[in-house]
Design goal:
It contains no helices and eleven strands. The chain has about 120 residues and is an all-beta fold. The protein starts with a strand and ends with a strand. The mean pLDDT is about 100.
């Protein structure tokens, strides 16, 4: 299982970023995919999830109405569109899949939102 995130960067408050995660090594279209984020010294927090068929998505309250998770099962990719970013969204963002009873993570992509 391999997950590779991209798309992070530095953006001003109110701006937007689109994160991407490329997955390989498992049957991508059969699994729930999630995004998490982590700031130094704190636990990694769940942000959003999407089911295998893209018929159901869920979000932590802090990002509802601002973030949108989506996936493309033909390309084995999952995305996180982040709008109206706030300084508190600054974190390393990770793609996640629970496969074979284990959590798998990418290397993360840094998102920094300046005020």
């Amino acid at each position: 299982v391999q997950l590779v995130e991209s798309g992070g960067g530095l953006v001003q408050a109110g701006g937007s970023l689109r994160l991407s995660c490329t997955a390989s090594g498992f049957s991508f279209s059969s699994y729930v995919m999630s995004w998490y984020r982590q700031v130094p010294g704190k636990e990694r927090d769940w942000v959003a999830g999407i089911n295998s068929a893209s018929t159901s998505t869920s979000y932590v309250d802090l990002v509802k109405g601002r973030f949108t998770i989506s996936r493309d099962n033909r390309k084995n990719m999952v995305y996180l569109q982040m709008n109206n970013l706030k300084p508190d969204d600054t974190a390393v963002y990770y793609c996640n899949v629970l496969w074979g009873g284990y959590d798998y993570w990418g290397q993360g992509t840094q998102v920094t939102v300046s005020s």
